Amino acid sequence: MSLLIIPVLIVAAATGLFLLWKFRWGPPDRTLPGVLTYHKITGFEFGGTWMTPARFASGLDHLADSGYSFIGEDQFIDTLDGKRESPGKEILITFDDGYRMLMDHALPSLETRNIPALIFLVTSYAGRENAWELPLPGRRTRHLGWDEVSDISANPLFTFGSHSRTHRDLTGLSDDVLADELIISREVIGHQTGRMARSVSYPFGLVDRRVAGSARSAGYEAGFTLFPTGRGEGVDRFCLRREGVWIIDTKSSVDLKLSGGRLFWFEDIKGRTINRLASITPFFMKKGPFD
Asked: Mind listing the pLDDT tens digit for each residue in 115-158?
């Protein structure tokens, strides 16, 4: 009899999680192209935001073989503005943090496949190592320098957006500091690339109404989070959903994230849990050298 309790408890827990998801978040709006976000394309490290170069390239091929096409930032914003209609099964590839390793392990794979990408930069860390991740072995990673950004921006496949100036939780900053994080980073990217940043990705995916309003006032045309906190109906151009791709993901799980199949709710809860764990990092780390 006691052995029967285990499957009953598992079913009860799964049912409870599904009902929580259904009434708290529900399925997302699918009118826009899907957006995938990556962080580190590298070998093993202590953490979950990395993926090997081979798996990254294989994942791109799998998506193409599954009938997906890839669009760039400009096409995505045109769709957001209603200037173009998406035919469906389109993907925008994004990278948060703008690490130097992308030049060796990600951009060549994209370039050979003619796949565009949007790279979000932390402008005060250009050419420097990150300082906001937990100091586990091997996690201090260098960002793209401005000379490298300039070289990459010469390729029309790749555009750059802002990931703020110093990668802090924007929701906890004063109005003036928040404005500086968004305005200065946008202007610096414009100066360094000759193209003003059109999009912003909020550090740790943390955004509220005040941050979204500040992004709009700073001149951005789109603001990306990971998992919007409200229900999925409708599109908020300054709280755009993306699907994080982590080392624990498989081709099947990425398919599920994009297609919204029957078990999408499980992938959504998994992603929200990972993002929530990552968002507590600022509580354990000191402020960076540029604060």
From this structure: 999 999 999 999 999 887 766 666 678 999 999 999 999 999 99
Q: Please give the Cα distance from 278 to 37 (Å, whole number).
A: 15
Q: Which residues contact 198 (CB under 8 A, 6 or more apart)?
A: 73, 74, 77, 159, 161, 220, 221, 222
CA distance 64 to 254: 13
Neighbours of 108 (CB within 10 A): 13
CA–CA separation, 191 vs 67, rounded Å? 38
- Tens digit of each residue's pLDDT (9 = 90 or more) over 2-17: 666 777 676 677 777 7
Could you give the CA distance from residue 259 to residue 63 in angstroms, rounded to a whole number? 12
Domain ranges, ordered by start, for the chain: 28-283
> What length does the chain have?
291
How far from chain centre, in Å, is Cα 53?
A: 18
d(CA 268, CA 251): 16
Residue 144 CA to residue 130 CA, distance in Å, equals 11
Strand partners, 118: 94, 159
> DSSP E strands: which ranges in 96-221?
117-121, 158-162, 199-201
> How many Å apart are CA 87 and CA 254, to the nearest integer?
20
Of 56, 93, 92, 108, whose CA–CA distance to 249 is shortest? Answer: 56
- The residue among 38, 79, 28, 80 whose CA lies nearest residue 60 is 38
**CA distances in angstroms from 171 to 157, 186, 209, 277, listed in the order given:** 32, 18, 9, 16
Q: Within 10 A of 157 (CB to CB), how many other CB atoms are there? A: 15
CATH architecture of 28-283: Alpha-Beta Barrel (3.20)
Give φ, ψ of 50 to 5 degrees: -115, 165
User: Tokens representing 161?
Assistant: 């957006």
Q: Which amino acid is located at 261 in the chain?
A: G
